Write a sequence for this structure.
């Protein structure tokens, strides 16, 4: 899609369509940047889990997905709340509530709440009220409602003071929200307090997705424990990836694959003690039997043309 300005009148060079690169030279048109059109993910893709009854728990790896629905064209108007000049709270805490930090907005301990329930009026307001009533401050909310079904999905990031809002009390508060809206999923995680997820990373020959995950783990953006990296391609010991893994004590498992042997049984043995898997551009299609046997979430990190190819 190409955005264009209205055609200027003859001889009019004041339009933003034109500029003069060199004084005295004729004006040249400046094409406006094209509008990029993004396709939002399906709710079933974002929330698919391999089992479980939706009870309140902190052990859900989908909490680590960072605003997976932020590019969806179907997001409601309440789905994006931008913070500027140090932050903007969605609602003010009550007068008796304590602030998560001395500044009232910037600091505190990070919490992440994920919610799924039948769509209804006032869900965002109740989530906001629950957090604000305990002195918490919301940093971001993503909301998604599919066009073909009235199911409400949300992911909320907030900061709070653990002394004013103990972890056990937080579980109870969000569980009450679950009952209020008949939700089948209401989970909260506090990365600084809760045990780290254990993951395994599957990768192939190209390094860029794997490197991005490893560097995100190194700088604290992904608070997980990496059990191992599994690849169907061998890497030389003096490469950047191998040196990084050796320096950080992360095992590297080389399992070459063939058309008739995907080494899935061996992979299952290696990832048995993990909470979820990360496919860092792993160029193999996992079988239905593998997914059934593993029975947990798998996060696929891939190039932008993924919708054109067969997936998990």
């Amino acid at each position: 899609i190409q955005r264009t300005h209205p055609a200027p009148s003859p001889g009019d060079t004041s339009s933003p369509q034109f500029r003069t690169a060199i004084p005295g030279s004729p004006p040249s048109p400046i094409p406006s940047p094209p509008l990029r059109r993004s396709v939002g993910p399906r709710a079933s893709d974002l929330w698919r889990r391999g089992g479980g009854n939706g009870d309140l728990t902190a052990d859900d790896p989908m909490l680590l997905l960072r605003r997976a629905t932020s590019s969806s064209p179907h997001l409601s108007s309440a789905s994006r709340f931008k913070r500027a000049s140090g932050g903007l709270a969605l609602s003010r805490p009550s007068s008796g509530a304590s602030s998560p930090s001395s500044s009232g907005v910037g600091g505190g301990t990070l919490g992440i709440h994920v919610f799924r329930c039948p769509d209804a009026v006032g869900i965002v307001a109740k989530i906001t009220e629950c957090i604000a009533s305990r002195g918490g401050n919301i940093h971001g909310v993503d909301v998604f409602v599919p066009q073909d079904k009235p199911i409400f999905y949300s992911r909320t990031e907030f900061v709070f003071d653990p002394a004013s809002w103990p972890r056990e009390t937080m579980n109870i508060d969000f569980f009450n929200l679950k009952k209020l809206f008949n939700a089948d999923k209401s989970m909260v995680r506090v990365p600084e307090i809760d045990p780290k997820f254990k993951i395994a990373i599957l990768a192939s020959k190209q390094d860029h997705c794997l490197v991005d995950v490893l560097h995100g783990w190194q700088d604290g953006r992904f608070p997980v424990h990496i059990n191992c990296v599994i690849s169907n391609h061998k890497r030389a010991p003096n490469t950047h990836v191998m040196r990084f893994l050796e320096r950080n004590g992360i095992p590297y498992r080389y399992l070459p694959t063939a058309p008739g042997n995907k080494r899935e049984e061996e992979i299952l043995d290696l990832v048995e003690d993990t909470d979820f898997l990360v496919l860092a551009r792993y160029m193999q299609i996992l079988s239905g039997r593998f997914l059934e046997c593993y029975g947990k979430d798998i996060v696929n990190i891939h190039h932008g043309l993924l919708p054109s190819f067969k997936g998990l």
Summary: The CA atoms of residues 17 and 31 lie 7 Å apart. The chain has two domains: 43-189, 197-308. The domain at 197-308 is CATH 3.40.50.170 (Rossmann fold).
